[in-house]
Design goal:
- The chain is of the alpha/beta class.
- It folds into two domains: 1-28; 31-344, 4-Layer Sandwich (Purple Acid Phosphatase, chain A, domain 2).
- The protein is built from nine helices and twelve strands.
- It has helices at 2-26, 59-71, 91-101, 127-130, 137-143, 183-195, 229-238, 298-310, 322-334, and strands at residues 32-37, 78-81, 108-110, 156-161, 164-168, 200-204, 242-247, 255-259, 262-266, 276-282, 286-293, 340-344.
- A six-stranded mixed beta sheet has the order 3-2-1-10-11-12, with no helix packed on it. It has a six-stranded mixed beta sheet with strand order 4-5-6-7-9-8, with helices on one face.
- Strand 1 (32-37), helix 2 (59-71) and strand 2 (78-81) form a beta-alpha-beta unit.
- It is globular, with a radius of gyration of 22 Å.
Length: 349
């Protein structure tokens, strides 16, 4: 009798093990929470920094506040930072950035942005810019080992939690604030996605892939978008597990855009009006997010708001002058209809 009971228990344990294994192979997570920060442009105040549309002199204060608020979020699994980490890859700003990232209490995964490529000052730039001391983007990757980067390469992939795959692209292009994904990186991306088809996949890069608004056709804004976006999109669409492409660069509040089942989402900057970050909740079948504005001094908000309104570069094509035009600019920057958002994911096991 005891032997029979023992055998029965053995079979029960084996059956439970198989069930648990199979259920784990379907989904390894039930719910994930993560934050997306982008474009902090960390800048120690210097001769060539100021608070304007990019709140450079206040960038450390703003990013520090974002870190404090993110650290206070219960149940957060990790943080993504979608590029433009420093002002212009100055050594002192890289040091300050690395110091600040160490304060975040959960794993952090960073992407390179166009400001991680040494600036090439034009002949018409003021003298303070002509004497900038920059560095290679590989200086950034080596300084940020452990924040996603492993070695000097600017792109990588990892599994932040079991069942979730994260791919981080290097969309930088030397000599421009536009971007491109190199042929070698595309080959790597194809192989990486092929090998991870059983995992829900998030892809992060700095530059945008799709226009999120009809007014984004402004010629002066073309460098917000990746040069070979269609090539990258075609590769992402090839693999059904790719459900989200997350980016920064645009400096307006968070906006989602769906194309052929993939959600392309650009994110609010900590640096530029309306200054904030985005909190995601992800399940195997859907995602939702909420934009959070930074709780900082009113005078910082007013400076950011007024400098945004005063700079013609940031005004969408056809925006009238005066109060009516100003309201349109602010509405465009705030994108309040997308301050909270949720949608189903295309990838289902």
């Amino acid at each position: 009798m005891n032997a029979s009971i023992g055998r029965m228990y053995t079979w029960v344990i084996m059956l439970v093990t198989v069930v648990l294994f199979l259920s784990g192979s379907v989904w390894a997570f039930k719910e994930i929470r993560f934050a997306v920060l982008t474009d902090p442009h960390v800048s120690m105040p210097a001769q060539n920094t100021q608070d304007n549309v990019k709140m450079e002199d206040s960038s450390v204060i703003l990013f520090q506040k974002a870190i404090e608020e993110v650290n206070a979020i219960p149940g957060l699994d990790f943080v993504l930072i979608a590029g433009d980490l420093t002002k212009d890859v100055e050594p002192w700003n890289i040091d300050k950035l690395a110091e600040m990232l160490q304060e975040i209490r959960v794993p952090v995964y960073c992407a390179l942005g166009n400001h991680e490529v040494s600036p090439i000052p034009g002949k018409d730039k003021e003298p303070s810019l002509a004497s900038l001391v920059g560095g290679s983007k590989h200086t950034v990757t080596w300084a940020l080992q452990g924040f996603g980067f492993q070695g000097s390469r600017g792109y990588y992939s990892t599994d932040p939690v079991s069942g979730l795959h994260l791919v981080v692209l290097d969309t930088t292009k030397v000599g421009t604030w536009g971007g491109r994904v190199s042929p070698a990186q595309l080959r790597w991306l194809d192989q990486d996605l092929y090998l991870n088809q059983d995992k829900l996949t998030i892809v992060m890069g700095h530059h945008l892939l799709v226009p999120f608004h009809e007014k984004e056709q402004k010629e002066a804004w073309k460098n917000f978008y990746l040069e070979n976006a269609e090539e990258v999109i075609a590769l992402l669409e090839k693999y059904p597990q790719v459900s989200l492409y997350l980016c920064g660069h645009r400096h307006v509040s968070t906006v989602p855009k769906e194309k052929n089942g993939i959600w392309y989402i650009e994110h609010i900057s900590t640096l530029t009006y309306p200054m904030g970050y985005t909190i995601y909740t992800l399940t195997p079948s859907q995602f939702s997010y909420e934009v959070k504005y930074l709780e900082v001094a009113p005078e910082l908000w007013e400076t950011a708001r007024q400098t945004m309104l005063a700079d013609p570069f940031w005004r969408p094509e056809g925006t009238p002058e005066g109060e009516e035009g100003n309201e349109q600019v602010l509405a465009y920057q705030e994108q309040r209809e997308f301050k909270t958002f949720s949608a189903l994911l295309r990838f289902q096991k």
